Amino acid sequence: MIHASSLRMQSSDPGFTLLELIIAITILPLIILIIGNGFRLGMNAWEKGEQETVWTQRFRVLSGLLSQQIKSSYPYMMDIEDEKVAVFEGKEDSVMFVTALTDPAYGGFKWVRYSHKDGTLFLKEGLLPDKKLTDRITGDEEVVDTNIEEIKFAYLSLEDSEWKDSWDFSKTLPGAVRVKISHFEPFLITIPMGMAAKEEDQEAEAR
Predict the structure, then answer these.
(1) 180 exposed, middle or buried (CB, 10 Å; 0-12, 13-18, 19+)?
(2) What is the CB neighbour count within 10 angstroms for residue 35?
(3) Is 118 helix (H, G, I), strand (E, B) or coil?
């Protein structure tokens, strides 16, 4: 026999009402959506951080390579278009110069040309002396790095203390080169041989 007290206890047990069930069903997808968005934002932030780290490392390698070679630019004189000039030519998207940083097995000098086209940085180089230098500058370039949005060069003229977007073959080197790579801040590369030539000119004028 079931006692009345048992019926009273069963009827007082807690349970979900229809309204509570509807609220729970409505809130659950919202909670899942919020958690999903938070997870997605976290993943995006992590991926962005990883990508920025990789880009920073690439920037350090590129800036180190360019700095080392451009800093060693040497005023190697040769006849170009019937005029004796230093082999250094620069544009906004390319720079060509002579460096003494060569393979110890060869020694001497070599010419180097960096150029940026369609998001890719190219390199071309050769040993000196080379009577066909002007014919070898273009073509058969080596890929240095890809997916580089922007590389811009500017050149410091010591004669008028101004930055120029280009540097034609002349008897002197620029005093420095400013390099802008993608979204990073531009960095300066001083050319000691360019500075030394300017100091020699000033001493000659003083005499």
Answers:
(1) middle
(2) 10
(3) coil
At 1-30, the pLDDT tens digits run: 445 444 444 445 555 676 777 776 777 777
The letter for the amino acid at 49 is G
Please give the distance of CA 170 from its chain centroid, rounded to a whole number. Answer: 29
pTM of the model: 0.71
Whole-angstrom distance, CA of residue 96 vs CA of residue 90? 6
What one-character DSSP code corresponds to residue 93?
T
Give per-residue pLDDT as tens, 145-175.
Answer: 988 889 999 999 998 999 999 999 999 999 9
Give Cα 193 to chain centroid, integer Å.
26
Angle at 86 between CA 82 and CA 92, to 5 degrees: 105
End-to-end CA distance of the chain: 129
The helix (run of H) or strand (run of E) holding residue 111 is strand 110-117
Phi and psi for 185 in degrees, rounded to 5? -65, 140
CA distance 19 to 98: 82
Integer Cα distance of 182 and 152 in angstroms:
9
